Structures are given as structure tokens and as C-alpha cells.
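Human: Respectfully, please carefully check these C-alpha cells:
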Amino acid sequence: MGPNYHPIKTQIRDLDQQARRLRREELRGVLVDLRSKILEYGITAEQLFGSDLSDLVRYRDPQTGKTWNGLGRPPNWIRGKDREAYRVKRPEPS
């Protein structure tokens, strides 16, 4: 007989807590590294994110032009629909 449900659920919960702790610990180092590179190279917010943040947009409603980056709760115009139909197409890098 294979593993039981409750021990697996407990293991998942424990691993999830461990993953969140490790992410927090690693994030500090990542942020320190990013900040030092930004200062070292004089990177501006516009260089980093673009002037209109359009590169962060993943979905666009063709009727209204409203956009969504795919994070958080989906807006009503895309909720329950096939998201691929709304995905912003990006040109392939050359």
C-alpha cells in the first residue's frame, strides 16, 4: 500500500513553509546584488522597466484596450475565458 493522504499533506505543508523561508533568505541576497548592479551601472527605472511598462503587460482586451499582467485576481474582462486569446504577442528577439 502506498503513502497515506494525511502524512503527505503534512509533508507538503512543511515543505511549503521551508520553501517560503528559503525564498525570504535568498531574496535578501538577490536584492542586495540587484541594488549594487543598479548603482554600479547607473540604471534608471525607465531603462529597467521601460517608459510605459508595456513590457510587463501579458494580456490585453482588444475591445477596450485594458491590460493585465497575469498577477493577482483576473479582471472581469478575462475571468473564465481562454487567456491565450488575449495574450500580447511579442516579436522574437533578433
Notes: Residues 55 and 90 are 9 Å apart (CA to CA).
